[in-house]
Design goal:
Strand content: under 5%
Largest sheet: none
Radius of gyration: 12 Å
Number of strands: 0
Protein name: RNA polymerase sigma-70 region 4 domain-containing protein
Order of helices and strands: HH
Shape: elongated
Mean pLDDT: 94
Low-confidence stretches: none
Helix content: over 70%
Oligomer: single chain
Structural class: mainly alpha
């Protein structure tokens, strides 16, 4: 699914979904680097 499709399905804006995904990616990267 695209970010736009996810936003439409969940009722959020595209910008909000993109921000949440970006934050999630940063957390995953940080966790992997520490391991």
């Amino acid at each position: 699914m695209t970010y736009q499709e996810i936003a439409d399905k969940l009722g959020y804006s595209y910008g909000y979904i993109r921000k949440v995904v970006s934050q999630g990616n940063k957390e995953v990267t940080t966790t992997l680097v520490k391991a």
